[in-house]
Amino acid sequence: MEDKNSIKSVKKFFDNDKIRNFIIIAGIVGIALIFLSSYIDFGSLSGKKEEEEFSVTTYSTKIESDLQSVISQIEGAGKTKVLLTMENSVEYVYLEGGTTKTKEIEPLIRGVLVVCEGGDDPIVVERITDAVTKALDISTAKVCITKLSE
């Protein structure tokens, strides 16, 4: 008996012209959005940022500028320029299925060249070498520090 009453109430609900028109309009809007989704990237319209593609150049430039600002703060270094060389590009590690990225292995640093005004002072050279090797976790053999020409 309750099933017949609930069926009647549902039929009565859908017999209302306003509700039926609303459902039809909502369906048309939904279909239109599905078709538009192939032409418009709705992900870029939202506030979410997609994961940015890794760029070795951007990575290298960021490290160079960070090192340059830090080294120029070291006493006696003065005006500083930094050049970084990288071994390879980024390496991505995926799960066995190949769809889920588990980690990114950043490029290896082959060498760092620091040119600064205090590059001829052995104490300044030692401070800069120590700072660079510790910051980048590289050996002293990969760091070259020289005086900036005037």
Spans where pLDDT lies below 50 across 5 or more residues: 46-51
Report the β-strand fraction as a percent range: 15-25%
Q: Give the strand order, joined by hyphens, for the main sheet.
A: 1-4-5
* Continuous helix count: 5
Written as H for each helix and E for each strand, in order along the chain, the element string is HHHHEEEEHE
**End-to-end Cα distance:** 99 Å
Largest sheet: 3 strands, mixed
Rough outline = rod-shaped
Query: Helical residue percent?
Result: 40-55%
**What's the Cα radius of gyration?**
31 Å
Mean pLDDT across residues: 82
Oligomer: single chain
> Which structural class is indicated by helix and strand composition?
alpha+beta
Number of E strands: 5
Report on this model:
The chain is α+β, with helices and mostly antiparallel strands. It is built from 5 helices and 5 strands, in the order H-H-H-H-E-E-E-E-H-E. Strand 4 (109-116), helix 5 (122-136) and strand 5 form a beta-alpha-beta unit. It is rod-shaped and about 95 Å long.
Describe the secondary structure blueprint for this structure:
Layout: H1 2-15, H2 17-36, H3 42-45, H4 56-71, E1 80-86, E2 91-94, E3 101-105, E4 109-116, H5 122-136, E5 143-147
Parallel strand pairs: 4-5
Antiparallel strand pairs: 1-4, 2-3
